[in-house]
Amino acid sequence: MSLLRQYRRYAPPDLQRYCRFVVAGRHVGWVKPVLAKELAGRADVFQMAGADLKMQPALADAAQRSTAMASVLEDLRAQGRIPGWRSELYPVNQSFGETPLLVMERAAAPLFGVAAYGVNLNGFVGRGWEMKIWVARRAPTKSVDPNMLDLVVGGGQPLGLTPAENLLKECQEEAGIPAAIAERALPVGIVTLLIEAGEGLRVGQQFNFDLELPESFTPQNQDGEVAGFELVPVSELIHRLRSADDFMYDIALVLIDFLIRHGFVGPEERDYLPLIAGLRRPIPFAMEPVA
């Protein structure tokens, strides 16, 4: 079976069915029309402008917008409409590294279809077809994709850290990888994510790293978010990706990217070109100011 089956787990979202979310004249996300209409009832925070949901221009800076958004999200949380609250702030912007237009609770990002960033680590042992990849089983208590297969290390990208600094932190928390080893990880690019989730859109850009781990090393979870680890031969990994949906969707993309970069999937694969094209699909934020 083709590895493209992983891409077909979610149909491409029809963005015409959403309202654009606009902050300070910048298109930064998408909101379901029903929610947009409801939010527009908070006239101190939002307004409808045609088909767009805009934050009020009177909220003139990031601090004011962040405070106003926090108030709205606390109300939605009290109604049970934001599962998996993390008390972790994410920047809202069009591109990574831009000065945030505001910050908001990570768990609410899909409601507004704003871009969320993260880091991933492909931890492997050996080379060639003798290679094995460390795979984690997510804890059953995780709010997103419980019990599904994951990379040895991965996590959201918080404010105040570079991706490399964040990776070192996640390596320690998720797998007990000491800094002296984690610092050898190499940045290898990104994958993008744009899928419809139950509450809205999951929009993501994942920074990926490769790390060859010592054969003597065994991951040890430190934060309770992993149920266990497994060292999987590369041939078995390819079989799982071809035949099952055991992996989180975005992690399946990261692993396909890994397999292509390391030569396990090449031009002889019938779907080689669409596989590559599907890894970094553009996220169609409007790049010009919105009138």
Automatic annotation (TrEMBL):
Q: What InterPro entries does UniProt report for this protein, alphabetically?
A: DUF4743, NUDIX_hydrolase-like_dom_sf, NUDIX_hydrolase_dom
Query: A Pfam family for this UniProt protein?
Result: DUF4743
Q: Note the coiled coil stretches, chain numbering.
A: none
Domain Nudix hydrolase: residue ranges:
116-254
Protein known as: DUF4743 domain-containing protein
Q: Which organism is it from?
A: Dongia rigui
